[in-house]
Write a structure and sequence with these properties.
It is a single chain. About 40% of the residues lie in helices and about 15% in strands. It contains 3 helices and 3 strands, in the order E-H-H-E-E-H. It starts with 10 loop residues before the first strand and ends in a 10-residue tail after the last helix.
Amino acid sequence: MSNIPIENRQGVTVQVASEYSGISRSRVYELLADGTIEGKVIRGRRIVLVPSLLRFVGQAPSTKREAAA
């Protein structure tokens, strides 16, 4: 993997998107298919567009529990 932070890239492979987001590669392909995240095919490789991946990850519900009142 490159030393360039993901936020500074335009696109990443499905594998990198999976590792970054913590979801399976097959789920990344599903999200690409339904348009939730955007991608392109470049020379036969599926590339996930980083801005759409970051938007998706930012929309994920927090795993932190709220403190009981």
